[in-house]
Amino acid sequence: MDLEQIKEGILHGDRRYIAKAITMIEEGYTNIYEILEDFEEYSGKAKIIGITGPPGVGKSTLISKLVKEAINRNHNVGVLLVDPSSPISGGALLGNRVRMIEEVSDPKVYARSLATRGWTGGLSRAIDEAVLILEASGKDIIFIETVGAGQIETEIFKKADIVAVILMPYSGDEIQALKAGLMEIADIYVINKGDLDRNKITGVTLRTIMGKDKRIVYTSALYNEGIKELYDSLINIWDEYSKSGELDKRRKLKIKSSIIEDLNSYFLKLLDDFVKNKEQELEKITEEVYQGKISRYKAAKNVIEEFKDSLHKA
Ligand SMILES: Nc1nc2c(ncn2[C@@H]2O[C@H](COP(=O)(O)OP(=O)(O)OP(=O)(O)O)[C@@H](O)[C@H]2O)c(=O)[nH]1
Ligand SMILES: [Mg+2]
Looking at per-residue confidence, does 146 or 176 come out higher? Predict the structure, then answer.
């Protein structure tokens, strides 16, 4: 497969080529950039919806139902399942998850998990590139699921246009969500597993904690309840943000944070190479610090100066 072929395939929405390109990104084939630069004109074409929340609340099940809804509405839909954990265990787990969404797929749907194997650009960067590829392939709505707890949940704010935080009834998740900083990033709360019949209580709790103006939608992904309403709400919020200028603001923020990420990974790579070549010298400096000949602070400062010099020479 040559690059031109991959590019054409993506532009025709061919899933094989989309898959190939995303795999190249995951595996760090930098020549994929030749294509990505040509795709820049498609950037921002899709509505990007972040779906996040604690493990097991039904994010993937919900997305599989939202995908069906998208198909009914003739929307061209892409799904990315992002796993911040180790590529080995995470990859295997995500394999199952992605299958669930692919089962509902028709040729217009593209779903896959995303994990990076040691590329300096990292997962965050891979999300940007995968989104761009999906946009170039003609997707007009893209769902990004982030799994589990921790930093990546709030990172999704930098990738998505709007964020839906999924919770389930009576699990204490609502409190957990507040702790994890999800409150700041939620544009809408979805209380899933409504069939468990206790979700109203969670809603009341949420209302009490978060005030009246937060949007809350009740769903049962399992029984297909509330899916249309959720889909409508997501589109409505997106339209609203588009009109109010909020979307522009967020997308600019997104560009800025991607540029900063690029800068970071570029310099980290340089620094990494520099340090690798300095192994012996570092041993020597360490010894000097250990023997009290020079302070650790001063030693680090010297190395930094040397690094800066090497940049000038580069
Ligand atoms: N009763 C009930 N179970 C549900 C509902 N939605 C999902 N589930 C079940 O909850 C379990 C977890 O669902 P997933 O969709 O994998 O949840 P998730 O949030 O994507 O999970 P992680 O990706 O592991 O964080 C599965 O056994 C689903 O069948 C629902 O509306 N009602
Ligand atoms: Mg999932």
Answer: 146
In the block, tokens 């309840």 appear at 225
Q: Using an 8 Å Cβ cutoff, are 60 and 81 in contact? A: yes
Residue having the nearest C-alpha atom to atom 17 of ligand 1: 58
CA angle 295, 301, 307 (to 5 degrees): 140
* pLDDT, position 312: 85
What number of other Cβ atoms are within 10 A of residue 268's Cβ?
Answer: 12
What is the reported pTM?
Answer: 0.85
Question: In whole angstroms, what is the distance from residue 162 CA to residue 121 CA?
Answer: 24
Q: Is the CB of 196 under 6 A from ligand 1?
A: yes
Please give the backbone phi and psi of residue 217, each rounded to the nearest 5 degrees, phi first.
Answer: -120, 135
State the distance from the centre of ligand 2 to the C-alpha of 58, rounded, in angstroms.
7
Domain ranges (residues) in the chain: 42-244, 259-313
Over its C-alpha atoms, the chain yields an Rg (Å, rounded) of 22
Give the Å distance between the CA of 60 and the centre of ligand 2. Answer: 4
In which residue are the tokens 């265990």 written? 89
CATH number, domain 42-244: 3.40.50.300
- CB of 193 within 6 A of ligand 1: the answer is yes
Cα–Cα distance for residue pair 130/25, rounded to 1 Å: 8
For residue 203, what pLDDT is reported? Answer: 59
Contact at 8 Å (CB) between 67 and 105? Answer: yes
Residue nearest to atom 25 of ligand 1 (CA): 55
Closest CA to 177 of 196, 195, 190: 190
Helix (H) or strand (E) holding 50: strand 47-52
Query: At 118, phi and psi to the nearest 5?
Result: 75, 20
Rounded Cα–Cα distance for residues 303 and 205 (Å): 54
